[in-house]
Specification:
Helix content: 10-25%
Number of strands: 22
CATH superfamily of the largest domain: Glucose Permease (Domain IIA)
Distance between the termini: 57 Å
Bound molecules: zinc ion
Number of domains: 3
Number of helices: 6
Order of helices and strands: HEEEHHEEEEEEEEEEEEEEEEEHEHHE
Strand content: 25-35%
Shape: globular
Structural class: alpha+beta
CATH architecture of the largest domain: Distorted Sandwich
Largest sheet: 8 strands, antiparallel
CATH topology of the largest domain: Glucose Permease (Domain IIA)
Radius of gyration: 23 Å
Length: 311
C-alpha cells in the first residue's frame, strides 16, 4: 500500500514538474531500503529519498515546491555528529561570523522535527512585535509577552551553543542549535538556567523572562536563524495556535531578501545641526524616502547620535 502511494506520488510529481517545465530525470524504479527509498532515474542516476520526510512535506504548506527540492536533492539534513561541532562557537553569538546573503543562495528544504522530536512554544504570551523593519532597523525576531520571572523553554531539542550576557542589546541571551542546523535565540532573560554545551530537550527550562539589554518592557525576543541569517519565526511557528506552521521549512534565496537589505543598508549618525533636508541632500535621497525608511514624519525631531537609515 505504502509503495503504491509512493508511486502515485511520483507520477503526480512528474506531472507537476512537467507542467512547470522543469527538466527532471524520469523515475524508472524504486527500491525500498529501510525508511529510505532508493529512486532510480532514466539517466542512470539514483538517490535516497527519505520516505517519512516526503509524507511530512506533502502535508506542508508549499508542498509543490517542497517536492521539487526533494528531487533536486536539497533536503537539508545535517549529520548529527557534525551539526554540534562545525562552526560551534560558545563565545560569539554569530557562529558563521555574521549574517551573509551569500549563505542563502541555495534553496533548502529543512525537516523541522526529528522522528521523536517535539515542539514547545518558548513562552505562551501574545506577539508584541513582529519580525521585519521598524523605524529603520531590522527586527530580527519576534517579541513574546511575559512577566519577569516567567519560565522560558527550549522550543526544540538541541544543544546550548551560547548562554551569557550580550552587550549588543540582547541582554542575557541563550542560543540553542538544533538537530536540523537551525538555531533559536532567547533574549532579554532575567536569569540564565542553562550552560553552553548543555543538551536540552524541547520544553526544558532554559531561563527566566525579563527585560535585560535593550528592552522597554518584559518580553522574550525570539529569533530563528539558519547559518546566522535570521528569518521570520512565523514561517515556522503559528504563535496563535502555538503549533508548528510547517513540517518542512523551505528556505529559498527570495525569502532572504531582507538579509541582503540588512547587508546593504547604510546609516547616518545624527550630529548637531543635522536636518532631514540636509541628510536627504547629502545622500541624494528624498525626504519622503527617509521618512518611510525610518518611520519618521517631515516634522520629526532628530536626536543627537540617532541612526538614520539612508539606503
Ligand atoms: Zn525583539
Amino acid at each position: 500500500m505504502k509503495k503504491l502511494i509512493f508511486f502515485l506520488y511520483l507520477i503526480n510529481l512528474i506531472y507537476i514538474l512537467k507542467a512547470q517545465e522543469i527538466p527532471v530525470p524520469v523515475v524508472v524504479d524504486t527500491v525500498k531500503s529501510g525508511r529510505f527509498d532508493i529512486v532510480l532515474f532514466t539517466d542512470r542516476t539514483w538517490q535516497y529519498v527519505d520516505h517519512d520526510s516526503i509524507i511530512k512535506i506533502v502535508r506542508a504548506e508549499d508542498s509543490v515546491k517542497a517536492r521539487k527540492y526533494i528531487i533536486e536533492n536539497k533536503l537539508y539534513q545535517p549529520d548529527s555528529t557534525t551539526v554540534f561541532s562545525e562552526n560551534w562557537d560558545t563565545v560569539n553569538i554569530f557562529a558563521f561570523g555574521n549574517i551573509d546573503y551569500k549563505r542563502a543562495l541555495d534553496t533548502v528544504a529543512i525537516p523541522v522535527l526529528r522522528d521523536t522530536g517535539k515542539f514547545f512554544i518558548p513562552v505562551p504570551g501574545y506577539v508584541q512585535s513582529k519580525f521585519g523593519w521598524r523605524w529603520g532597523q531590522m527586527h530580527n525576531g519576534i517579541d513574546l509577552d511575559l512577566k519577569t520571572g516567567d519560565t522560558v523553554v527550549a522550543s526544540f531539542d538541541g544543544v546550548v551553543r551560547y548562554a551569557g550576557w550580550n552587550t549588543g542589546g540582547y541582554g542575557n541571551l541563550v542560543i540553542i542549535r538544533h538537530y536540523n542546523g537551525l538555531e533559536t535565540y532567547y533574549a532579554h532573560l532575567s536569569a540564565l538556567k542553562c550552560k553552553d554545551n548543555q543538551p536540552v530537550r524541547a520544553g526544558e527550562l532554559i531561563g527566566l523572562g525579563g527585560c535585560t539589554g535593550r528592552c522597554y518592557g518584559p518580553h522574550v525576543h525570539y529569533e530563528v536563524r539558519f547559518k546566522d541569517n535570521p528569518f521570520d519565526p512565523e514561517w515556522l511557528i503559528n504563535f496563535e495556535t502555538k503549533e508548528l506552521a510547517v513540517d518542512t521549512l523551505i528556505l529559498s534565496p527570495e525569502k532572504f531578501g531582507h538579509v541582503k537589505e540588512i547587508c546593504e543598508a547604510q546609516y547616518h549618525a545624527v550630529i548637531s545641526g543635522d536636518t532631514l533636508w540636509g541628510i536627504s541632500r547629502r545622500y541624494g535621497v528624498s525626504i519622503k524616502y527617509l521618512c518611510s525608511l525610518n518611520g519618521l514624519t517631515e516634522n520629526s525631531i532628530l536626536n543627537l547620535g540617532q541612526k538614520v537609515r539612508v539606503r
